[in-house]
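Session log. Operator J.P. requested a structure for one protein chain; no other inputs attached. Running the standard single-chain path with C-alpha cell output.
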Amino acid sequence: MSPAREDLLSIRQMCALFDVTPRTLRFYEAKELLAPLRRGTARLYGYRDRARLKLILRGKRFGFSLEDIRQLLDMYDRNPGQQEAQLARTYALAAERLAQMERQRAELDEAIAELKAEMDWGATALAALRSAAAAE
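Structure written below.
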C-alpha cells in the first residue's frame, strides 16, 4: 500500500518503499536532490521527496548523470508553471542518452560478433588438434 500524499515517512520507510539504503538517501540529500524535514535527528520525507526520489531513480536507471537530474528537478522547483521548458529539456536529454545507448549497443553487438567468431575458430582448432591426437 502506498502512503497518502500528506504522509511523512521515516528514512526506514523510504528505504523499504524504494528499495534503497539509508546511505543512498543521505547521499542524495548531501547532493541537494532531496530535502527531508528534520525533527531532531530524524529525517521525514514528504510527498515531494518521494516524487523526487522516484524521478532520481528513474533517471539513474536510464543513465542520466546526477547533475542532469538536478538541473531538471531545479527547473521544476524554480518555475512550477513552466512545465513546457522542463519537458523540452528532459526530452532533449533523453534523446541524447538514447543515441548514446544505441551507439553502445552497436559497439557491444560488434564485440559479441567478433568474440563468437574467435570462439568458432578456437573450437575448430581445438577439434582439429583432438582429432589429430586421436589418430596417432
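Operator note: The chain has a mean pLDDT of 91.
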